[in-house]
Amino acid sequence: MITVNNISYSYPGNPNPVFSDFTLKINPGGIYGLLGANGTGKSTLLYCIAGLLKPAQGSVDINGTDTFRRLPSTLSEIFLVPEEFDMPAIPLADYVKQNAKFYPRFSVEQLATYLSHFRLTPDIHLGRLSMGQRKKAFIAFALACNTSILLMDEPTNGLDIPGKVEFRRAVISAMTDDRTIIISTHQVRDLDRILDHLVMISPTGVVLDRSIASLQREFQFIFSQTAAESANALWVQPAPGGFNIIRPRTEDMEETDVNLESLFEFAFSNPEIFKQS
Amino acid sequence: MNAISDKFSLKRMWTVVGHYCVANARDLLIRAAVMFGLIFLITLLLTKVVNEDPVARASMIGLFFVMAAGLLFTVIGSMTFSSYSSKPKRIAAMMLPATKLEKFLAMSLIYVVFGNIFVLLTLFLSDTLTASLFGLRSAVSYLPEIFDNIFYKDPESKRFILPVSLGIAWFFFMSQAIYLIGSAMWPKLSFLKTFIVINVFQTVLSIFIPFYHFGDWLGKHFEFFFEYFDNIDKIYALVWSSIAVSYLIILPGLYALAWLRFRNLAVAKRFLS
Fold first, then answer.
1. Is A226 exposed, middle or buried (0-12, 13-18, 19+ CB in 10 A)?
2. CB–CB of A90 and B23 under 8 A?
3. Taking the model in full, what pTM does it have?
């Protein structure tokens, strides 16, 4: 379990804190979407979880161990895919040979599978790939490490359209019951239908922390060409050709996919609804 | 969690060394080639200037090598944590599953130990190659005679005295350790930043210690320095031994400071954290 205990953090030279007494618990298993507006601390939160930043107050623990200690046993269970990553210009085989030994559950076979999802092969030279291809290779390596926690900061930035589809396919195929994947993004459409859990954060704290299943049970997300269906709606958002509507769901209504964009707007406009539930 | 040990492991430290060398092979080779190229070129030019006189060459090359070693040791010290110079690099290095001490020692081993050995080899090779090009005796071949003169008061009786060269070597190692602290504090543009800080510090110090006092102090010590060769008695031996011991304490102390700074490195750096 990842426990963020009342952390406060501000960047050097910036008097405005990113977090102030921020608390969050993340249970093991599932794909978490970490959403928030620009500058609300999504990346900072991932860095704190990874032990790369030391909160001025509070701590971040993984199974009771403070991550800032950066112990090998903790680091071998966390892999971070940052928005900007470092990958040397060497053959992938050499990169794997030097890095895989630090991750006990690394699988060469899985790496080949994930690479194939991205239409890459294990014999590639990292120095001869485009930025997007390097990112795909890095994500494939990250997934093949089989760490129990995988943190991804804007993983779809720089990926082409097929790459985003391939990314979703690779992440779903890498998912196991005991694995936690936290994806921070503002490209919510890239995460359609792969998330198990949503966490939305703002400078004041957690706005929403709910499973997708519970959101689907509680709300219905529909698109309507007319405003007629907006009776009893909790949220109506004009969209090209009609309206995105969020309304309470009752047992007799069918479950719908969560419209992340509408939910984002809804949650930030009505934070009290999700705080109470 | 798996069974990976959190205790210091020598084997894992060497794995970090290998990991770093493979990932940065290109950069390391370029740096080594530039270093060797410059030293070789200057040695070649100096040899050309005095190629008729092997003793003059040895003297000039010897002086150049002392200066070059001093400079290169500090440059190498400032490169020690260059793998933390940019955010992506810093993240990659910090997320590597090894202890902080293993990473610290691995970087120190690569730069301070292997780097220093490389500098000495560069100097030796530059001298030997240029000397053989001009058909001269290499400056390094004079070392046994120079050592005899420095290490022994009386080369005939082989009476051992504490050498000045040891003091110079310690000074180099101390400078290197200071620049290593600078590298841990500012992995980017470390040499420049450390150089500026040291000079500002010296300037501020000179305001509090008037120059004429400092000159007196220096003169006294230089006098003592030279007297030492002529008056090797118990008191001088004791003073020199004390200085040597203080070096032995200060040098590990500087490395300890660098370690303390390194241990608290974060992705977003504070001046002191």
1. exposed
2. yes
3. 0.86
pLDDT tens-place values along chain B, 273 residues long: 446 899 999 999 999 999 999 999 999 999 999 999 999 999 999 888 876 777 888 888 888 999 999 999 999 999 999 999 899 999 999 999 999 999 999 999 999 999 999 999 999 999 999 988 888 888 888 777 766 666 655 556 555 555 666 778 888 898 999 999 999 999 889 999 999 999 888 888 777 665 555 556 655 665 655 455 455 555 556 666 677 677 778 889 999 999 999 998 888 765 433
Is A21 within 8 Å of chain B by CB? no
CB contact under 8 A, B94 and A53: no
Q: Which of residues 33-72 of A touch B (CB under 8 A)?
A: 47, 50-54, 63, 68, 70-72
The CATH homologous superfamily of the domain defined by A2-203: P-loop containing nucleotide triphosphate hydrolases (3.40.50.300)
What is the C-alpha separation between B67 and B28, in angstroms, rounded?
23
Question: Residue B91: which domain range?
Answer: 10-263
| CB-CB under 8 Å, B271 with A12 | yes
Q: Do A63 and B86 touch (CB under 8 A)?
A: no
Q: What Rg do the C-alpha atoms of chain B give, in angstroms?
A: 22
Closest CB from B4, B86, B88 relative to A72: B4
Buried b (16+ CB within 10 A) or exposed e, A76-114: bbbbbbbbebbbbebbbeebbebbbebbeebeeebbebb
Domain borders along chain A are 2-203, 213-276
